[in-house]
């Protein structure tokens, strides 16, 4: 009898005993669980590339990891065993949780990107990306922050040491990478001389009316070329046979360039794309791009609905002869868009070819999260063809778009198309395996005259022998 009275008094004085603990746990089991740590906070991602291999998520207690079950139990027991009626320390107010969708820019901050690139690869799914709607229009794109640019840069020399492992890791994580020092200083000067020869080759000296103007132009065609009066193409140097000229082929066939792509694919049997040349001799004005607005046309160059190439891993690049800086033209990339943005882009299912534009309502997101990439002379900017990107016109530029793919992807029909493209002096899209003529190429190859100077479609003739057939040194790369 006295025993039962003691038990009753115990629970009267200390309702936080075992009965209260049991009730507290029931409440906890029925309560809403706190949101789990996102993939981005843990710094993990899914990449459908060969380098996305098995690694575990952060261990409990590591930076970014949530509380362990043991820690949760200890917390519950501590709360449950607080005697009711005794003074307790006031509980600090919990921060108000946001009720809107997560900030779409969160995975794209510099800190988040730097954490992401150092985290191990994982097979866990990416968190869904939600665009922040905004108005369509021109926008300003910032230069890439130095810390992010450094994390995305891979020395060319590392490829020989690790077989391209570091390069592939950065490509998988960011969707782009900069391979530094692919060409050395003396080679850069040689390419510029070749480009000068290509420009000289399209000047029809015999048809020119102004001998003095022709003489001045031929002395330094790279810096004196009248781009407005004698345009080399509509957007790029796409006409007059220049995409099949001496400089373009030297860059495509350069051993270091091919070694870079061979390391990415693990295959040195490659075929090459024959894209346009990026050239502008408009002088760069210091500070002119600091707040410049430019037309936004963010896009990915891969459509997963196109079979079979839509399922390929494809990497395209630009080899810079002149630097890309804050005062020059440059390439813009959206880091991590190949995994966070591209899947949503493909869900629309409205694209017919390998050119997929973001909607106008996503331009604000692109302008906020994309960056112009700094590339030193001789550097090769590479990006996954699923990465959202665009060009940025803002000053001088001499650079050569380059893409190599495993030759096993290219069929006989594509090879025949590519041979004809070279003979015609036309550019292709970046895809090395398809041989599709680029849409910006002019179909009118007739001569053009301005201010007594006549130019013609002729730069591609260096690819043809005296019999009119393609040279073997060109055929081997197609």
TrEMBL record:
Domain of life per record: Eukaryota
Annotated TM spans: none
InterPro entries in the record: Phytyl_CoA_dOase-like
Extent of the signal sequence: none
Sequence segments annotated as region (Disordered): 22-71
Pfam families from the UniProt entry: PhyH
Name of the featured protein: Phytanoyl-CoA dioxygenase
Organism in which the protein naturally occurs: Neobodo designis
């Amino acid at each position: 009898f006295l025993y039962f009275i003691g038990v009753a008094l115990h629970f009267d004085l200390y309702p936080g005993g075992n009965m209260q603990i049991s009730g507290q746990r029931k409440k906890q089991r029925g309560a809403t669980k706190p949101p789990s740590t996102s993939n981005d906070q843990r710094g993990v991602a899914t990449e459908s590339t060969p380098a996305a291999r098995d690694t575990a998520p952060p261990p409990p207690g590591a930076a970014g990891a949530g509380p362990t079950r043991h820690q949760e139990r200890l917390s519950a027991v501590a709360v449950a065993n607080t005697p009711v009626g005794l003074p307790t320390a006031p509980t600090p107010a919990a921060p108000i949780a946001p009720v809107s969708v997560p900030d779409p820019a969160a995975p794209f901050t510099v800190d988040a990107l730097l954490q992401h690139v150092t985290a191990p690869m994982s097979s866990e799914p990416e968190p869904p990306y939600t665009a922040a709607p905004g108005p369509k229009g021109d926008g300003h794109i910032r230069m890439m922050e130095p810390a992010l640019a450094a994390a995305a840069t891979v020395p060319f020399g590392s490829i020989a040491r690790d077989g391209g492992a570091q390069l592939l890791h950065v490509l998988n994580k960011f969707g782009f990478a900069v391979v530094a020092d692919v060409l050395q200083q003396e080679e850069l000067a040689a390419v510029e001389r070749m480009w000068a020869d290509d420009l000289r080759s399209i000047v029809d000296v015999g048809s020119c009316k102004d001998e003095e103007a022709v003489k001045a132009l031929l002395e330094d065609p790279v810096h004196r070329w009248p781009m407005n009066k004698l345009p080399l193409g509509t957007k790029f140097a796409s006409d007059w046979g220049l995409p099949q000229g001496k400089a373009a082929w030297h860059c495509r066939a350069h051993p270091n360039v091919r070694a870079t792509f061979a390391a990415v694919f693990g295959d040195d049997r490659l075929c090459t794309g024959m894209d346009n040349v990026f050239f502008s001799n408009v002088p760069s004005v210091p500070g002119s791009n600091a707040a410049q607005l430019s037309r936004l046309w963010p896009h990915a160059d891969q459509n997963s609905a196109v079979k079979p190439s839509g399922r390929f891993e494809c990497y395209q690049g630009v080899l810079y002869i002149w630097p890309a800086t804050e005062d020059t033209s440059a390439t813009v990339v959206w880091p991590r868009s190949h995994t966070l943005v591209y899947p949503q882009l493909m869900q629309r299912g409205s694209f017919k070819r390998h050119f997929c534009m973001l909607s106008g309502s996503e331009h604000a997101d692109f302008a906020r999260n994309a960056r112009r990439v700094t590339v030193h002379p001789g550097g090769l900017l590479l990006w996954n063809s699923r990465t959202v990107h665009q060009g940025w016109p803002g000053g001088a530029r001499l650079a050569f778009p380059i893409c190599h793919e495993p030759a096993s992807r290219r069929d006989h029909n594509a090879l025949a198309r590519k041979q004809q493209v070279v003979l015609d002096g036309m550019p292709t899209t970046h895809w090395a395996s398809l041989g599709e003529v680029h849409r910006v190429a002019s179909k009118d190859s007739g001569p053009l005259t301005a201010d007594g100077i006549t130019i013609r479609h002729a730069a591609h003739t260096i690819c043809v022998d005296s019999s009119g057939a393609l040279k073997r040194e060109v055929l081997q790369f197609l």
